[in-house]
Amino acid sequence: VQDRLDPFDNETFDASPIEMYAVATDMLFGTAAYLPVKSAVLDLDAVRASTSLPLVTPPVEIDGHKYVDGGVADSIPIEHVLEEAGFDRAVVIVTQDRSYEKKPYEFMPAARARYADYPYLLEAIETRHDRYNIQRMHLWKYEREGRALVVAPQKPVEVGHVEHDSAKLLDLYIQGRQEAKRLLAEIQEFVER
Question: pLDDT grade, residue 14 (50/70/90)?
Fold first, then answer.
């Protein structure tokens, strides 16, 4: 996709002074790891780790650590960005509409069987929905304070975690691009202030 269908500008990314991190979950500790992505090509493992869905894709090993999807430990890293990393504001793109509320993980029995050697990861998976819903409340507070600009789908998302319907995926992708275009001037003003 990034090479032919919707080409990614690797040269511009690599030349940018803006730091990028991929959030992954350290399987041993069940905690978030903020992995630097300095090169769109060379640091692809960090991006893969950040999107390695438990039970669906294999963990990614980097420097002796095994990682899965960063959403397990830190679904919306707004507190990390504003309270720990020291930034004063953030543009946040969420993948669910504003009314969404995450439910408990329905595949906990399978996760317990697969990750029995990783008790902290299991705890993170089991409590993810609570932490996610709290993070969203914090996100709306940051937005009201003017510290976050949130880009969210305008309507409930009907794409599953492991979606096979390419038409649904394309529709959601187009919706996201249209929403970003609609907010582009607002985003630019927010970033430049």
Answer: confident
